[in-house]
Amino acid sequence: MIEQRAVTTEPGTQRALLSVRDLKVAFPSEAGRVDAVRGVSFDLHRGKTLGIVGESGSGKSVTSMAVMGLLPEYASVTGEILLDGKNLLDLDDRRMSKVRGQQIGMIFQDPLSSLTPIFSIGAQIVESLQIHQDISSAAAWKRAVELLDLVGIPNPDRRAKGFPHEFSGGMRQRAVIAMAIANDPDLIIADEPTTALDVTVQAQILEVLKTAQRETGAAVIMITHDLGVVAGSADDVMVMYAGRPVEHAGVDELFAQPRMPYTIGLMGAIPRLDDRDRDALTPVPGTPPLLVDLPDACPFAARCPAVEDACRAAEPPLLTIGGAGTGAAHSAACRRAEEIEDGAIAGKPIFPVPAAREDRVADVPREERPKVLELSGVTKTFPLTKGGLLKRKVGTVFAVNGIDLDIREGETLGLVGESGCGKTTTLLEIMGLKPPEQGSIAVCGQDTAGLKRKQDIRAVRRDMQMVFQDPMGALDPRMTVFDILAEPLRAAGERDKKVLGTKVAELMELVGLDPEHRDRFPSAFSGGQRQRIGIARALSTKPRLLVLDEPVSALDVSVQAGVINLLNDLKAELGLSYLFVAHDLSVVCHISDRVAVMYLGRIVEIGDTDAVFDNPRHPYTQALLSAIPLPDPVAERTRERVLLAGDLPSPTDETPGCRFVSRCPLHTTLSDPQKERCRGVTPLLTDRGDPDHRDACHFAGTTTSVDN
Amino acid sequence: MPGAGTAPEEAPEIAEVLEPGATGGKRLSPTKLYVRRFARNRPALGGMILFVLLVLFSLFGRYLTHWNYEEADFTALSVAPGVGGHILGTNSAGNDVYAQLVHGLGRSLIIAVAVSLMTTAIAGLFGTTAAYFGGKVERAMLGFVHFLLILPSFLIIALVGTHYRGEWKILVVVLTLFGWMLTARVIWSLATSLREREYVMAARFMGVGAFRTIVRHLVPNIGSLLIVTFTLGVASTVQSETALSFIGFGVKQPDVSLGSMLADGQNTLSTAPWLFYMPAALVVLLTVAMALIGDGLRDALDPTSQSGGRA
User: Fold this and answer.
1) Which of A296, A395, B116, B187 sits at a 20 to 30 Å CA gap from A351?
2) Is the confidence metric ipTM above 0.90 for this complex?
3) How many domains does chain A have?
4) Among candidate residues A401, A386, A254, A265, the one with its CA nearest the CA of residue A331
5) How close B227 comes to chain A (CA, Å)?
6) pTM of structure
7) Testing the interface with B: which of A463, A487, A523, A535 to mutate, by most B Cβ within 10 A?
């Protein structure tokens, strides 16, 4: 095992491990010089974790790339990056390569692309060991196996010979962490290490990172957009905006007393599991500025509700404002930082909560509202084939395995689950409007099995529209906004240019876009605006049901809040129903009336949002809920997590029994006959007294509910 | 080509981005926008002007001489340029080279542009259609392409060409019929990735018809490939026509094309070099013009293009 090092003592008593002073990075571009990082300074001590938070384009990744010396030649980098007293900016690439890997370990976002597909995992770790150390191949291999064991890969002996494609996403990220700590680095830089992973796996990886840090005594720079991840893992937090740190403080201090309006805005914009009573989120209006020729003014001034004339006169420096408690001194780059107390100036909140619209259909009881979508026993299988020329079927993948759900008018059903659980397949089955392999789908009372004629299908299509995940991919880059929005209308037979013009203008206003912009191409819009275009397109046929496939997961937090509010408003105004598919439970809990949790092609728990989130009954739901990082450092430290072991198994076999058995924390506590029952009998959705809240677990009643 | 040459032209584009009101209340059609972007690209504009000049030359060049391309001047066989009233001299049969060039350029232009346009159109539609439908339709269509690919097309073209004694319209048809398969195959492989795109799925879920989806979403998004194919197609058709004419299966006397002139001229390269270099120069000019236009069009139509900027 790796020799355990004592984590160093109090910061301040010793020289910082990493000390960055006035780091500036600029790139040339067609539009002019882009100042990506404009003066970043921080100190990082051994054994400590610095979280850098910011939206895309805030310069957080560029800062870390500068520390690693991985910026392209044409970038101009000035300032000082002292690692152990050595200025990294003075080193040439050859000497910098020695530092990278040996003193600095790196963990990137995408674990698939940071591993070479043609070498085994073990060989890749051995390579990184032998580059930096004079060590025999046999010893290096032994060390590689030890490292894999350390990061929690089962059977490391055997798995070290495996190739990256044989590993799941979480396992790959563990292997990447093993490589990063192979040479016992002083500094680990993790750039969005869990963004590409599922929540339950994210929780595991964050734990592994903590283990790695403990074993090596390294300092960690954790770059993320997720305030929850920061709250749980960082000691100090630096919030970046437009290439500059705008607030820097110890984690408790920052979350308890944010002083910069941007930080306050970010915190107000995240939907939170622990605060579900809020009616609307508080979006931060506008978009971050382009980092070209920035004027000498506060870059946040255009989006800040607390802006004063003086804010536009000069850019405020990052000033220390007291800052008691642990961690770094609290500093913020805001002229009015002293006035801000508890997210408010003189008692008035900086970001007022927008009023939620009155829900018209909410008064009618659920049972009396018509069903807009009904699925019963829907199954979708894919054949598993082998052989090149003559494909023979060797098995069946049950992507969706007997799903029952219904959505009534004016209701939002959130469908959650990890990747690979069959959410998207379910959506495609619904949108395909074909009779499923087994079971039936009915849209607005029309059974899809009865849809034979083209006109019938077209009529149903008008009632049900879809909003896609990727706001860029869902819009044809070669069509203007006008053409994009007019397309469904044209498909429905509308030809009159004047009518199209007015309808498009109406739609754009409805989703909060300026109708003047109808001649622009999608690339001229920001992510949030593009998603609004996607929503407008879906609304153009006046549907009754919108199917939303992860509509906000590709958006920044401050923008995401605006889109979620828009969806809520539209629902209230137009009486829409949503089928909202997401992996982010906090978003789902904010927008949904009802929730269905999916695991391996089956629904394991379904019910009213409050019922499911307050009293989760299925052990999987409990694990999901406890895996979500909360943007509250105190709650993060104290709460108990149900950590799931392993990854999602492949849904190939159709043997009876609960599919969650291999990862179930409850299963291990049961007696032998009870275990038999889990393995032998497929649990069905059953209600326990409450007909609206059903779960598929034999022994759900015996669990103790876990605080989320 | 995001080089130094385009950098100064970026400035007005930024202004367009920053001033949303600049377009006014009127709808600016994409076509207008493409034209504007194309005109901003100087080399492309140069190529366009060159191409227009070549077309004008082929149409009206004959009014600058009193000789007809079929007419033989037996008093001046194989004379150098400028002798006996022949601006660019004559060939060994006494035909005026200038008159032949004008006619040959026109003939080659028609053949090359027509063949290239048709092969590109067929290949584009065929490839995207196969990709859009997928499954059995795709397999059948690809099988057909593969079957055509293994046929000895050059031989068939030569045989058919001989049968019709160098009739250029037949040549166009035959060259088209056997020229589109490889492009179709490439376009198909590109379009298979497009069919998984969300906007194609969105169109499907909105109830947009198959043909409309193919024409509106798939074809425009492989537009840059189609344009490059078209441009290169013009150049390569001139070459195939030259090759056919050279071995005697292409355009035949008394009709002339640049290809047949090249074939004739190369026999007398040392004694009468003007017979080779004149048509060769025109072929080069034509190819360069097409390449420049293709480049400019690709940039103008590409929404993510650097030099095209944003609308």
Assistant:
1) A296
2) no
3) 4
4) A254
5) 15
6) 0.78
7) A487
Tens digits of residue pLDDT in A169-191:
788 888 888 888 888 899 999 98
Q: Is residue A477 part of a domain?
A: yes
Chain B residues lying within 8 Å of A468, measured CB to CB: 198, 201-202
Residue A604 lies in a domain: no
Do residues A648 and A418 make contact, with C-beta atoms less than 8 angstroms apart? yes
Q: Which of these three, A321, A349, A377, is where a domain ends?
A: A349
Q: What does pLDDT average to in each consecutive run of 10 residues of chain B (311 residues)? A: 35 34 47 78 89 90 78 73 74 80 88 91 93 89 91 79 76 86 90 86 84 87 82 80 74 79 81 84 86 81 49 33
Pairing of strands A49-53, A236-241: parallel
Identify whether residues A213 and A245 lie together within a single domain.
Answer: no
H or E element that contains A107? strand A104-107
Residue B134 burial by CB count (10 A; 0-12/13-18/19+): exposed, middle or buried? exposed
Residue-number span of the structural domain to which A683 is assigned: 614-702
Query: What is the C-alpha to C-alpha distance for residues A598 and B203, in angstroms, rounded to an integer?
Result: 28
Q: How far is A633 from chain B (nearest CA, A)?
A: 38
DSSP A292: B
Which residues pair with residue A397 across a beta bridge? Answer: A382
Residues A374 and A340 in one domain: no
Q: Which residues in chain B are contacts of A482 at CB distance < 8 A?
A: 27
Is A461 in contact with B223 (Cβ distance < 8 A)? no
List of chain A residues whose C-beta atoms are within 8 Å of the C-beta of residue B217: 476
* Interface list for B 204-233 with A (CB within 8 A): 205-209, 212, 216-217, 220-221, 223
- In CATH, what number is assigned to the domain containing residue A504? 3.40.50.300
Report the residue from B197, B304, B311 with minimal CB separation from A520: B311
Q: In order of start, what are the domains of chain B with their CATH numbers? A: 68-290 (1.10.3720.10)
Phi-psi region of A438 (alpha: psi -120 to 50; beta: other; left: phi over 0): beta
**Residues A477, A522: contact at Cβ < 8 Å?**
yes
Query: Given CB atoms, is B2 within the 8 Å cutoff of chain A?
Result: yes
